[in-house]
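Input record (one chain):
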Amino acid sequence: MQFVEANDAKIPAIGLGTWELRGRTCARIVEQALKLGYRHVDTAQIYENEREVGEGLRASGVKREEVFVTTKIWTNHFAPHDLERSVKESLVKLRQSHVDLLLLHWPNPHVPLVETLGALAHAKELGLTRHIGVSNFTAALIEEAVTACREPLACDQVEYHPYLDQTKVKAACAQAGMVLVAYSPIARGKIKNDSTLAPIARAHRKTPAQVCLRWLVQQNVAAIPRTSRVERLSENIDIFDFELSDEEMDRIFGLASPNGRLTDFGFAPKWD
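The corresponding structure, as predicted from the sequence alone:
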């Protein structure tokens, strides 16, 4: 397994996203993923599956210290005391003493960022998490967060796939010594029949999804594809035995378009 590294955090380059996975399915997929060699699992308070992620983790038999576990704090828990309480609740659900990475799930303009980041840093100082970071932050918000936080931030977790240009956010992360973690890395399956990706995939005897994930990893980006199918789990992690050429990388970069974003909400920040 390859890693991306930032501010002392060593994040496995491919992880399992668990958004929309629930109940037994979620626990089973987490267990299977870890048995197949995954060492990075991503959940969130709002996913309402932290309990099942913890069950899958324990059922896998993989040692806890070998797995990189991320959870994300929902925006209505950003007031300092509430943040700490909610993180402790997450740990009870996961049945863990700590997570490896704790993220602010979305920006929340209704609570001063400096207060929320103070509480996030405090959670790290208490040993509730090994590393901290943010999610869905724009380049300007990254800069603001880095200035306001007394502990180093490891990453910004954002939507990133060939149809969405994230150059500005990537540059802001690099400037801050952070890395980017990509959710929806295969554009929720939209890449399946892409006429640019198909010939590249054929040339490497891989699938378009594997080409997408390889494209991200070659940019020093970690990716957390989500699947509920065990056969897809093996496919998504089988990307370390080939390399895309600079010309192939450029062709994939060329797919980005202004309307490529798939995840957008009324409360989202003004995107770059």
